[in-house]
Every structure is written in structure tokens, then in C-alpha cells.
Amino acid sequence: MRRFATALGALAAAGTLALALPGSAYAATGNLVINGVGHQNPSGCYSTGTLATLIVNQTDATVYVFSDLNCSGDVQQIIQPGISTLAFGSSVLVK
Q1: What pTM value is reported for the model?
Q2: d(CA 65, CA 87)
Q3: Which candidate, 24, 37, 72, 86, has a CA 20 to 30 Å from the CA of 6?
Q4: What is the rounded CA–CA span in Å between residue 7 and residue 24?
Q5: Beta strands across the sheet bearing 44-47
Q6: Where does the UniProt annotation place the signal sequence (predicted)?
């Protein structure tokens, strides 16, 4: 009986964890355009491919432009939802 209770408890904990993890991922709703290339419901880091980048933030999320690749280095610019701008950086992070 004790093994059954332990197994049942472990199963309940695993089920709770499995249900909680999918909710922690976040994707913005809308379209992010980087130099003419659209990204529907973007999430994470995107390379700009160039130093001067036209960014159109048609999402519900804030976009951060970083000086270096892989969203590292200094934040060069913060782009609020609904803003289109010329940005200078190597990568873009959607938060």
C-alpha cells in the first residue's frame, strides 16, 4: 500500500509539473517585421543580418535591439508595440 501511495504522489506531482510548464512559454501575438521579413507570433531572438535594420513591431510585446549577435551585448533600442523604426544592432529579442 505504501508503494502505491508513493507512486500515486509521484504521478500527481509529474502531472502538475507537466501542466505548469507549457504556460511558462511566451510568444508575442502579432507580426514582427525585420528588414521586410515577417515573423508571425514571434518569440525569442532574431538576427538582423545588417547593422541598420527597419523594424516594424505589430505585436503586443516590447522588442529589444542588441548590439551583438544572439541578443547579447548592450541594449541599443527598445521598441514598443505599434512602432516602426530604423534600429542599429545585430539582433532583436521579443519579450
Answers
A1: 0.72
A2: 7
A3: 24
A4: 26
A5: 44-47, 91-94, 63-68, 72-79
A6: 1-27
